[in-house]
Amino acid sequence: MTPETLFSLTGKTALVTGGATGIGRMAAEAFVRAGAHVLIASRKGDACQAVATELNALDAPGSAEGFAGDLGSEAGIDALVDQVNSRVKTLDILMNNAGLTWGAPMGQFPYDAWDKVMSVNVAGIFHLTQKLLPLLMASAEDENPARVINVASVMGEAPMGDGAYSYSASKAAVIHLTKIMAKELAPYRITVNALAPGPFVSKMTAFATANPETRKKVGQGVPLGRVGRDEDIAGCVLFLSGQGGSYVTGAVIPVSGGINVQSGGNIFADAL
Q1: Residue 144 lies in domain
Q2: What total number of domains does the chain contain?
Q3: Taking 70 as the threshold, does the pLDDT of residue 271 lie above it?
């Protein structure tokens, strides 16, 4: 047993939804560097193809290809599944990363912000995984299960993210759904785990992380004193996807710098 064998993905196939930017892009690169063939899908097919070209230019043992895929409707999910089936015969890793958010103050939060966010962040994850089960089952083995990684959020664990009501609720749903799926898919030798990230630099958080000064201020609010880095995501997904993570299912990994265990101050000590 060596570090290389624990985390190697040589010969594996992976699908990363929302893989053109942010956490999905970080994971896709980690998979390629570990030797996997990675399918990258999001609503913007051109962006996915561009990222695939960048990853294929790396001095890495894996490879990538990108195409359009929309989880916002049943027809979109069916089309994405057809694309995957046309490219691979088995699927070792499914990373459900694509998601939507919506922000508005209490009293102004629109009704539409619920249906659109929940349809992608929760229903989309469930139905895509369900429809890809034949490919996941085709690769699953007793000693090396197929893997599903759902991307939730620390906002689904902690009562934070004021104004992002449907997003936070959807991510709490992803966490619970992950545990249900882990229980039901274990007999088929498929592990299902989730990441619950805190702040990372991404398109979704660009309003607060694109500017270095603002990003530094965001990091100051994190117990570990910084926003997340690419390596933080890479380490988690390689563990969950490699041989080292083959006995873990139903876990929620808090990649949040300690936000998940933040609480109120020590009210007794503060009062003295």
Answers
A1: 3-271
A2: 1
A3: no
